Amino acid sequence: MINFSAFLGAATMYTRYKIVEKQNQTTYFSTPVFNLVSLVLGLVGCIGMGIVANFQELAVPVVHDGGALLAFVCGVVYTLLQSVISYKSCPQWNSLSTCHVRMAISAVSCAAVIPSIL
After folding, report:
1. What torsion, rounded to 10 degrees, do the Cα atoms 63, 69, 71, 76 define?
2. Which InterPro entries match (predicted)?
3. Contact, 72 vs 56, CB < 8 A?
């Protein structure tokens, strides 16, 4: 089930990448490299989810924990980058309230990732 969730997450991230790419062609608001870095980090996070799904915590704890670290850290950085992209594209493509909600989610995920690393 986690593998399928990781696949759907990757598909969603790629879709968001293409949407931002097209919007940026219409109205330039951010460097395309920023969007690409966000996509790559998001996909690495999805790969981390796949690692967590395929390596049991009790059988191979180092690999499982490494995958979890990838998933959490890359996922948090992905949400932060997407929040920044949203603010840069405001008000043309996003409302300010959407940007604030994305940043709030990013802040909560940043606060949650710190205890998971420790």
Report:
1. -170
2. CWH43_N, DRAM/TMEM150_Autophagy_Mod
3. no
